[in-house]
Amino acid sequence: MVSNATSAYERRCRLLLRLAYPPRFREFRGAELLGTLMDLAEPGQSGPSVRECLDVLRGGLMLRLREHPPLGHWLLYRLAPVRLPWQYRWWARDDIQGRFFLERRITLAVLLYGPLLLVISQSPPSYGHMGGALITCLLLLTSRGSLRRAMLAKHEFHPDGTSYVPRPPEFRPDLEVHALPPDHVRRMQRPGR
Fold it and tell me: How far apart are the C-alpha atoms of 185 and 174, rounded to whole Å?
């Protein structure tokens, strides 16, 4: 009976993590966060408390907001096959591999380009307009795999989502200075040190 309650608690925690955090975070840190939630469980508890749920959801939301590209980059990425800057490439990978990737692109394009095309054509919507839009959507949906592979390659990922370009090292002054030739180190140091 205890294992039944534990497994129900664990299932609810996994669902909570899946709702709150992106796949990449769950892949690298999910076990750690799940272990913490399991340690907080009291005997016989069937799910995390409301406060724990809110804390996990808040943490996941803050992580997603921190990693989300700015509006300008995001619009270019959504409306045209533009590569995001390096610091947002992992967000792009999660987005490309996520569910409804193509549908999100199509919906935004229809919402933004649809009225513009109707104004340019200066005619009311007809069966031809709707047929053309339907055929375009069907063609895009059938080429979903090749579009994903192309977008992943554009952001320097293999088709399975693994990176083929190593992440540049984080800036650490102690490592950066020693990696430079000695004459550069002397120029970077302030006089009188």
Answer: 11
